[in-house]
Design a protein that fits this description.
The chain is of the alpha/beta class and 209 residues long. It has nine helices and six strands; from the N terminus they run αββααβαβααββααα.
Length: 209
């Protein structure tokens, strides 16, 4: 990836006025993390804390997301985290369809530049959006969460894993347990991917002389 191409995209997001959400934002929230990662997380939209800091998942839900990653041996700095919509909807409401449509080209460009092998969607809005642009069927979170499905975006093949948004789990202990189980699946698929991408040398096969 050309760094200049990424920087141009981020600058375009920061100056965006394609939908009504720009009127009340304090900061856009393009996303953060590794640009060479194989694991990408996509939420719904920034909340109040994210709007204040310009970073994704830094509030209570973000702390839970970080803990779920760390509990499964994954460092937050080694993944990329973003949202479908890059500006906070008023009152933390769900983004409207036209707001998602306006912001979607930014998300698609991010995916195509990073080229993750695994995309984890956090919550219904994110899952429904990713299913829509990859042609997968979305029934409900109860039916698709924790499943690993192959999806295609343009010429990019990814493993798409849906789970609940951490914010929902903060208010529902039952969902917290489901989320923890889903993250065990996510971590397993991630480790398998890292092993499959290992670079082998002759020493791996024949040992040291």
């Amino acid at each position: 990836m050309a760094v200049s191409e990424w920087e141009a995209l981020i600058e375009e997001i920061r100056s965006c006025r394609k939908c009504r959400l720009y009127k009340n934002r304090r900061n856009t929230v393009p996303g953060e993390g590794s640009l060479t990662t194989k694991l990408m997380f996509i939420g719904e939209a920034p909340g109040a804390k994210e709007d204040e800091e310009g970073r994704p998942f830094v509030g209570a839900a973000g702390k839970l997301l970080t803990k779920l990653l760390e509990d499964n041996g994954i460092s937050r700095k080694n993944v990329f985290i973003t949202n479908v919509v890059k500006c906070r909807p008023p009152g933390n409401r769900e983004p409207y369809d036209d707001e998602i449509e306006a912001c979607l080209p930014y998300l698609i460009k991010q995916i195509m530049l990073i080229k993750p092998k695994i995309i984890v969607t956090l919550g219904r809005v994110s899952t429904k959006t990713l299913c829509s642009i990859t042609g997968l069927h979305f029934a409900s979170m109860a039916k698709v969460h924790g499943s690993v499905r192959i999806a295609y975006l343009n010429n990019l093949e990814v493993k798409l894993i849906a789970t609940y948004h951490p914010a929902a789990a903060l208010y529902n202990p039952r969902l917290r347990l489901v989320l923890e189980k889903d993250f065990e699946i996510i971590a397993k698929v991630y480790r398998e991917n890292l092993r499959s991408n290992k670079t082998y040398t002759l020493l791996d096969f024949f040992g040291k002389s």
